[in-house]
Structure formats: C-alpha cells, structure tokens
Amino acid sequence: TALAQEGVVRPRRPASVEQRAAAAEALLFESAIDVDFMDAPLHEVVEWVRRRTGLNIFVNWPALRQMGMQPDAPATLRLEGVSPATVLTLAFKHAMSAAEIDFTKAELTLIENVVVISTSDDLARDKIVRHYPIGHIVRWIMLHKLGVVMKEAGIALRVLDDPREHGRSAPADHPVIDFVALDEIVRRLDPVTRENLGMTATEAILELTNLIQDSVGRPEDWQTFGGDDMIREFGSVLVVRAQASVHRELSSRLAELEEAVAVEAARRLRHDHVMRLLAVADQHRLNSNPIEARRYLAEATRIDPNHTLVRAMWRVLNEEQPSVTSRP
Question: CA nearest 21: which of 242, 241, 251, 175?
C-alpha cells in the first residue's frame, strides 16, 4: 500500500488509555523523522506527519482562523532526525511568522493519545482530571526520618499496604497509608522526639503538593495562587485538574521522585542487611569463632565493599587472628 511504501509506523495498540497515551507521547516526542517541505500548505504538512507516524492529530482550524492562521499557509522545512513534535511546531511557527501572527498564542499538546493544535486560549479551557497514587512517595518522605525516630522511641509504626484492612477499595498498585494512625503516633511522641521528627503525615502530603505547585506548570495557575488548576489529596491519591501539558509535566516529576525513592529505599535495605551481617559476624568474633565471623563479613563485603564498618571489622579480625586467611 501507499502507506506501507512511505514507511508508516503502526505500533500495536496498547490496552489501556494510559498505555495508549504513553505510546503516543513516545512517538510524538522521541521518534525521529526526516522532512523536506518547500512552501507546503500547513494542512498537507499535518496530513503527511499523520500518515508517516500513525499519530492521531486534531487541528482546531476554526480557532486558528480567528487569529488569522489559514490551513493553506505555506511552510518550508528541511530537517533530519527530528521528532514529529518538532516538525509540527516549526512548521506552524514558520507559517505564522510569515503571516506576522504571534506564534506564542498557538500551542501543541497531547490529550490522551491525540495530538491537539489550537490557540493557547482554546486549550486553556480544556481541563483534564487525573488521579495519581502518591502513597509510596509520601510514605518515604515520612519514613525517611520517622523510621529512625520510631526505633529510638520504641514505637511500632504500622503502614497499611492493603486497603481492605480499612474496608476501602483501591487499585492493586495504589498503596494506602493510614495517615490518621501515623499522625496519632507522632502526637504521642515526647516533645524532643517530635521536634526531631519535624513532620507528620499530613505535613508530608502538604510538602509534596507545595513542591508540585512550585515546580509543575505555572504557580499562578494553581488555585492556591489564584488560578483554576486544582490539586487535592484523598487518602494516598492526588486528584489533579489541569491542562494536558501540566499532566505530562506532573507525570514526569512524579516518576523522578519515584525513582529517587526506589534508589534510596534500595540503599537503606542494603545498609540494613549489611548491619545485620556485621552484628552476626561480631558475635562470632566475640565467641572466638573467627572462621564464621569471616564468612559473614565476606557476605557483607560482597554487598557493600566500601562500607566503613565493614572495613573496620576486617582490620579488627586481621589484628586479632593474623594466622587466619585475611580479607579476600
């Protein structure tokens, strides 16, 4: 077919809306194409990109016409290895600049798996509501300091991963935290420990929402600062109403936070494992069993060879039992 001859990309259609949106975003911003247009009408450029990539593209020509932009406005582009988003953006920018129209008043965005090109005023009216699970992020903000404090205070901290424990329903990948119970635990701490903790679960959520409003989109667009973009917390889920571009930025920001949480959690787990191995090794050392002590210490070394206490214990063992095989 003609489409096959042009090398059109037809990825397998993912099952869910979220997967289709992610696939469209990758195709729009991360794939690479070559273009060579000489005074091509804008509507032909759009149609070429649509056929070349398989993207769903909607251009709100009535809104663009109101600002003087016509579908047959000419665009000239010769580019190699650029994303479809770049092609569309530069084509419209070239045509609008030639027509002496302010390009900043037009915008390209992605709504679910549809590329939408329209005026900024038109797109500003299209608000999308999405839900973001934040339980794992908030839990780490909270437990990053709380875990140590609770251990010192001798208080058991209970975090609910199964929403059924409270008679609530939630998707399996949405961990639910009993924030009320967490705050109650914090309130019971003595003043000195509470001051060292410095953060309740409610405060952790507030810190996260403040971070989002300060770093995602424009601060003045959020309701907190007089705008109409909304962010609310319900349990361990954030409900956000904003433009598609804000949701894309928010998804990226939360993904960065989740990655940071995962890295830090792995580091803490590795550290805890090493400390347990060192405790067993030290017990064998005190019981005059250097072979077993070295066996456990070797395992700790495998996990974290640069750990300060691991190095220190090797020195102690080598000084106490120089005849036994030294550190590998």
Answer: 251
Whole-angstrom distance, CA of residue 237 vs CA of residue 161: 13
Q: How far is CA 183 from CA 59, 158, 170, 196, in A?
A: 50, 11, 22, 15
pLDDT digits (tens, 9 = 90+) for 103-136: 888 888 877 788 888 887 777 777 777 778 777 6
What is the residue whose two structure tokens read 């409610």? Answer: 202
Distances (CA, A) of 123 to 32, 227, 243, 245, 323: 26, 15, 7, 10, 77
Rounded to whole angstroms, the Cα distance separating 325 from 249 reads 56
29-34 CB contacts, 8 Å cutoff, 24+ apart = 29/83, 29/85, 30/83, 31/83, 31/84, 32/81, 32/82, 32/83, 33/81, 33/82, 33/83, 33/84, 33/87, 34/79, 34/80, 34/81, 34/82
In sequence order, what are the beta bridge partners of 74?
41
C-alpha distances in Å from residue 158, one per residue of 40, 161, 165, 236, 319: 64, 10, 12, 15, 44
Question: What is the pLDDT at residue 87?
Answer: 93
Residue 178: CB atoms within 10 A of its CB come to 18
pLDDT at 21: 78
Model confidence pLDDT, tens digit, residues 47-96: 999 999 999 898 988 888 988 889 999 999 999 999 999 999 999 988 88
Tell me the CB-side half-sphere exposure of residue 247, using CA atoms within 13 A.
24
Greatest Cα pair distance in the chain: 89
Pairing type for strands 33-41 and 128-133 reads unpaired
Q: Is the pTM of this model over 0.70?
A: no
Mean pLDDT, the chain, rounded, equals 75
Place of tokens 């273009």: 35
User: Sign of dihedral through CA atoms 280, 281, 286, 290?
Assistant: positive
Cα–Cα distance, 117 to 96 (Å, whole number):
13
Q: Name the one residue in this structure whose structure tokens are 């890295």.
A: 263
Instruction: Tell me the chain's radius of gyration from C-alpha atoms.
Output: 28
